[in-house]
Amino acid sequence: MDNMQLALIHSSANPKPGENNQRLEYLGDAVLELIISEYLYTRHPNMNEGMLSIARSNFVCKAHLAAVACRMGLGDKLILGKAELGQQGKHKPSILADAVEAQIGAIYLDYGMEKAKKFVYRWILEA
Fold first, then answer.
1. What secondary structure letter does DSSP report for 1?
2. Cβ neighbours for 88, distance < 8 A, ≥ 6 positions apart
């Protein structure tokens, strides 16, 4: 299974470590923070550290990432366990946000930083 497919598998569907999107989510979170941080740092030279941190938090927060997932139609593609499906997991902001981070991790691993940056710019920064 490739990383892009793995990024869609929630831990409720497959709780085995490495066979769900949790590790990709971990990596994607770090890649996302780096891309957003670099973007803000280079485009806003007059912002101090506190202002940069606040601006970054607006882009990486669960609510914003969940909205991105909705625009992408990502919820419909997620593979969830029966319990999460029954609890409307495909619409839960935390699950949607985590899936976006997992997608970023998968893109980074499969295609490199430049493709990950293009994804973040298109879907998260410029949307």
1. -
2. none
Per-residue pLDDT reduced to its tens digit, 60-91 = 999 999 999 999 999 999 999 999 999 999 99
**Domain region containing 28:** 3-8+19-125
What predicted TM-score, i.e. pTM, was given to this entire model?
A: 0.95
Eight-class DSSP state of 44: -
Q: DSSP alpha helices (H): ranges in the chain?
A: 3-6, 22-43, 49-60, 62-72, 82-86, 93-111, 113-120
What is the distance between the alpha carbons of residues 77 and 99, in angstroms, rounded to a whole number?
A: 10
d(CA 46, CA 36): 16
CATH number assigned to the domain comprising residue 44: 1.10.1520.10
pLDDT score of 17 more than 90: no
When divided into structural domains, the chain yields a total of 1
Contact call for residues 107 and 116 (beta carbons, < 8 A): yes
Instruction: Find out whether 10 and 112 touch, Cβ atoms under 8 Å.
Output: no
Residues annotated as catalytic (active site), given as ranges: 29, 101
* Residue 25 belongs to some domain of the structure: yes
